[in-house]
Amino acid sequence: MTVRDDHGHGHSAAGQDRRSLVIVLGISIATLVIQVVGGVATNSLALLADAGHVFTDVVGITLALGAIWMAARPATDARTFGWYRAEILAAALNAVLLLGVAVYVLWEAWQRWNEPPEVASGLMLLVALVGGGANLVALRVLHGPQRRSLNMRGAYLEVLGDLLGSVAVIVAAVVIALTGLSQADAIASALIGLMILPRTWALLRDATDVLLEATPRGVRLDEVRDHILQAPGVVAVHDLHVWTITSGMNVVSAHVVMGPDGDPAVLLDHLGDCLSDDFDIDHSTFQLETPEHMLWEGRADRVRL
User: Fold this and answer.
1) In what side-by-side order are the strands of the sheet with 234-246?
2) What is the pTM of this model?
3) pLDDT of 220-271, one tens digit each?
4) Which residues belong to CATH 3.30.70.1350 in the chain?
5) From CA 233, how far away is CA 243, in angstroms rounded?
6) Ranges of CATH 1.20.1510.10 domains, the chain
7) Based on the number of CB atoms within 10 Å of its own CB, is 264 exposed (0-12), middle (13-18) or buried (19 or more)?
8) Fold exhibited by the domain 14-211
9) How far apart are CA 158 and CA 152, in angstroms?
């Protein structure tokens, strides 16, 4: 058996952007305090709902930073890939928290629709404008990093949802100020709750795919197979698997059958470079076989069955 093992363990994508997360965490904590104080002072559920959403941002970003710290711990014999999956577990937990907040906000919005309280629209508008400005700054910080990491993307989507929530609160405050329609606060709250649900589902789906070792999004297994088959000296490929360890770290393993003219050293270099350049797969493990060995594996499989 010959193995090519390009250990792209280095650093996870999220680890490269730790500073961005710390900045956004500081912005989120400040926004949370302002919105909680403002929500209580104005009696606005919309502001408190947005504050609850920001609270999940704070919790999620704290989890992400903790996961990055854990992922930086070295691999051991017991955990050969280290703690990289901690980032994905944090993303899944973050999605569950978001779901809980959405359900609570929708329930409370229904209650307030039936019995709308009096809301101080002027202060509500001011607080919403401050929160929206803070969200814009945070989005700018996360714009680049969110393309490289699932946790960063989760944080980016959360802040984007916060911005949309702030817009909803601003509109509600203006409507209440101009018309006196207090139900606008409940409507804005319900909209914020509904905006949370789709991105919660997307984040949970992506995290679950990684935990179930699904083929990474954007990687087509048939294309990977074709690239391997087109390598010099390859006559067949089987037991091909592609999965994700953590954001930015895709892995492939395969049994590659060589013809009589195949050169193992040349073939391994070609396959490693090909998958790295075309599919962003830097960790590749190949078992090189002869056609006779493939037949032996087939017979062994039948015996086990």
Assistant:
1) 234-246, 249-258, 283-289
2) 0.67
3) 888 889 888 888 888 888 889 988 887 777 888 888 888 887 788 888 888 8
4) 221-304
5) 26
6) 14-211
7) middle
8) Alpha-lytic protease prodomain-like (1.20.1510)
9) 10
| One-letter identity of residue 280 | D
Other Cβ atoms within 10 Å of 229 Cβ, number: 13
> Comparing C-alpha atoms, which of 154, 34, 25 is closest to residue 97?
154
The pair of three-digit structure tokens given for residue 43, joined into one six-digit string: 């009696």
Bridge-based pairing state of the strands 283-289 and 249-258: parallel
Alpha-carbon torsion (214, 220, 223, 224), positive or negative = negative
**CATH class for the domain made up of 221-304:** alpha beta
Residue 57 · residue 155 · CB < 8 Å: yes
Angle of helix 18-42 relative to helix 45-71, nearest 10 degrees, comes to 160
Q: What single letter denotes the amino acid at residue 149?
A: S
Lowest mean pLDDT among 49-58, 78-87, 182-191: 78-87
Q: What is the pLDDT of residues 176-224, one digit of tens each?
A: 888 888 888 888 888 888 877 877 888 888 888 888 888 888 788 888 8
Q: At what angle do helices 121-142 and 45-71 cross, to 10 degrees?
A: 20
Q: Dump the DSSP string for 86-134.
A: HHHHHHHHHHHHHHHHHHHHHHHHHHHHHSPPP--HHHHHHHHHHHHHH
Distance CA 156, CA 100 (A): 19
The residue assigned the tokens 């329930």 is: 107
